[in-house]
Write a structure and sequence with these properties.
- This protein is mostly helical.
- It is about 80% helix and about 0% strand.
- It contains 7 helices and no strands.
- Helix 1 (about 5-40) runs antiparallel to helix 5 (about 120-145) and helix 5 runs parallel beside helix 7 (about 185-215).
- It is elongated, with a radius of gyration of 20 Å.
Length: about 240
């Protein structure tokens, strides 16, 4: 049997890595949505599934990195090919971090289940999680098709996530000021909202990698929403 042409072998290995990233991204998207559902439904069993499932996401990243190192060592890609390899490796790391944030959300469910109910809070966070999850799905679709236009649309939507975070911060601070018994629960919700904002940032970075791969140039500077650092404490 003849040995495959080096370029063909490279393309096949790179495609395997890209498919592995897409599969990993699907796992992360599921973790986001399930952890948000567990939060809203106060479902500790579902939260436990998300926490345990994070191990598979970590293993997926390790497998992708191993494949990337092997590809770099054996094929020594250059120029455009190297750009693709580096981009998918960075995306795998960002997906792993998003998975960690989803796991962190799930880990807070038992504490929040034992605390007071803040009407509408978990539902609002689930809506924020759905937005991030849809951004992630679209980012993965953009990667699959190398669709720079869709990737730019994902980048633009990050402002919505920032704005939702700011609105939730104001809401939870108000709950803490109105009733000290809400402080612990509200603080957990604040951390979750901030984690979801970071997930949106990481998804946006992934979309920027897609633009870089598709067009060979860095994405334009993106617009960010107002930082939570600028939020003033409401007057009592």
């Amino acid at each position: 049997m003849n040995k495959p042409h080096t370029l063909t072998a490279f393309d096949e290995e790179l495609e395997q890595i890209r498919l592995a990233v897409l599969t990993m991204g699907g796992q992360v998207e599921q973790a986001i949505l399930l952890s948000a559902r567990a939060l809203e439904q106060r479902d500790e069993d579902l939260a436990g599934e998300v926490v345990r499932g994070d191990l598979a996401i970590d293993e997926a990243e390790h497998d992708i990195n191993t494949k990337v190192v092997r590809l770099l060592a054996l094929r020594q890609p250059q120029a455009e090919d190297l750009r693709v390899v580096v981009a998918v490796m960075k995306m795998a790391g960002e997906l792993e971090r998003i998975g960690d944030y989803a796991k962190n959300m799930a880990k807070r469910v038992p504490v929040l289940t034992a605390g007071p109910v803040i009407e509408g809070a978990a539902g609002a966070l689930r809506r924020q999680a759905r937005l991030v999850g849809q951004m992630l799905k679209d980012m993965l679709d953009a990667l699959a098709r190398l669709d720079a236009a869709l990737a730019r649309d994902v980048v633009a939507r990050d402002v919505e996530v920032d704005d939702m975070t700011n609105a939730l911060f104001r809401e939870f601070i108000t709950h803490m000021m109105e009733d000290p018994r809400n402080i612990t629960t509200s603080l957990h919700y604040l951390f979750i909202a901030k984690n979801l904002e970071r997930m949106g940032d990481l998804v946006t970075h992934g979309a920027e990698h897609v633009i870089f791969v598709a067009e060979g140039r860095l994405a334009e500077p993106r617009t960010k929403g107002h930082s939570t650092a600028t939020i003033a404490v409401p007057e009592s």
